[in-house]
Amino acid sequence: MQTKMKPYRIQNSELQSLIAQQNTTSHALLPDDLGYYQFTNTQLDADLSYIETSYQPTKDTAIISQIDHAEPKIVVTLALQGSSRFAAKNGDEVIFKQGYSTITRFNTTVGERQYQADQPTHQLRLILNKNWLRRYIEEQQLEDLFKHNNLKTLSCQPMACQSHIAVQQLLKNNEQGAMRTMFMHTQAMNILTAELMHLFQPYKTENLHEIYLANAARDILLCMFKSPPTVAELAQKVGTNSSKLKKLFHQYFNTTPYGLLLDIRMEKAYQLLASTHCQVASAAYYVGYTHAGNFSTAFYNYFGITPKEVSRERGIIKFDN
């Protein structure tokens, strides 16, 4: 029987000492050729931070950290590529899975950020505090949210369609100086609106079944985007009718079933073209298009850029240097 190797462990403070700073982008070569770590950290305002990380270790790695904030924080993590895990010393854990938005609350936390060997991860985090939420959320809702300081996963679900679009805008951001921060702040607000809304909407008990139906239909499209069911078939799979399903998509996702399918296909095609040497025709086939020409037209209409341009840039894990 083959014995599983213990992960390489590095203190977060040791990692920070290896970091070379270039403007808002930082990067570190890990000891003994164990991989590469890169991140950006931008303070969008006094109560809101943007962090983007790219990491690919050459062996299983655990980054040991102790987080001790003066006040609880809310962290919205969008896992754009790969998966990782945070294991707290007290036994709590948080899984960050590709394509999912994970919302956590924490104050003081001791644990490990765990990564698998040769598995690239690309994650975007928005970190905000109670003062930021107080601008938009009623005080009683905030008290309920922050009445405990321990690590807690508040939500883990597929990224909202609006978030997919905002992320692509952030990755293509070529603005400089104050305009860059303003642009990032706008896209961050789009993400936070899409991802936090369900935490504060006062759902009635009778609406819970509708939410379940809408999420179930969305999950089916996420799995069957290449050969999707018709709207009628999708409605039948989740136990409703076409008219009702369309209303649910409009109510909870602000789009149609076809609109969500297009979001999924375009996002997956963009990731494929930008992170691999995939040809346009292959990307088109992968996301369910029979004709590359139709795919290229849809892609340009969606992003305002051609698939070939994305393929040349290879920009899915791209940082300003």
Automatic annotation (TrEMBL):
Residue ranges annotated for the HTH araC/xylS-type domain, each copy included: 215-313
Domain of life: Bacteria
Matching InterPro entries: Homeodomain-like_sf, HTH_AraC, PchR_regulatory_protein
Keyword set includes Manganese: no
UniProt keyword list: Transcription, Transcription regulation
Transcription regulation found in the keyword field: yes
Pfam families, sorted: HTH_18
Molecular function in Gene Ontology: DNA-binding transcription factor activity; sequence-specific DNA binding
PANTHER family in alphabetical order: REGULATORY PROTEIN PCHR
UniProt-recorded name of the protein: HTH araC/xylS-type domain-containing protein
Species of origin: Methyloprofundus sedimenti
